[in-house]
């Protein structure tokens, strides 16, 4: 069971590392849209201005070290998984 677990973790790390190597940024789509809320006025206690309703950016930019680190760590984990005894 441990062998399969570590093998799956290593393969997943290699896949994510290869994806980070191939793309510049990941952009997550959101379904929320800013709706027209009617006349603007104080919507909170003590007349504080309402929070900004601008869409939030969901971009993930992987750092430069991420692709190669994930690929190398995934490879080491895969090699470790292949050396675990099959009995346990």
Report the biggest beta sheet as strand number plus sense, adding barrel if it closes: 2 strands, antiparallel
Could you tell me the strand content as a percent range? under 5%
Question: How do the SSEs run, as a string of H and E?
Answer: HEEH
Could you state the oligomeric state of the chains shown? single chain
Give the low-confidence spans.
33-38
Distance linking N and C termini: 8 Å
Rg result: 23 Å
> How confident overall, as mean pLDDT?
79
Number of beta strands: 2
Strand order of the largest sheet: 1-2
Shape: elongated
The portion of residues assigned to helices is: 40-55%
Count of helical regions: 2
List the main descriptive attributes of the protein structure presented here:
88 residues, 2 helices, two-stranded antiparallel ribbon
Structure summary:
With 88 residues, the protein is mainly α. The chain has helices spanning 2-22, 66-83; strands at residues 26-27, 59-60. The chain has a domain at 1-29 and 58-88.
Q: Can you describe this structure?
A:
This protein has a domain at 1-29 and 58-88. The protein has two helices and two strands. 44% of the residues lie in helices and 5% in strands. By secondary structure, it is mainly alpha-helical.
Produce the secondary structure layout.
Elements: H1 2-22, E1 26-27, E2 59-60, H2 66-83
Antiparallel strand pairs: 1-2
């Amino acid at each position: 069971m441990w062998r399969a677990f570590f093998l799956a973790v290593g393969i997943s790390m290699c896949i994510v590392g290869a994806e980070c190597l191939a793309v510049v940024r990941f952009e997550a789509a959101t379904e929320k849209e800013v709706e027209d809320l009617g006349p603007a006025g104080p919507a909170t206690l003590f007349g504080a201005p309402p929070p900004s309703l601008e869409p939030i950016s969901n971009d993930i930019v992987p750092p430069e070290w991420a692709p190669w680190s994930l690929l190398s760590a995934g490879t080491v984990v895969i090699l470790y998984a292949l050396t675990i005894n099959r009995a346990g």
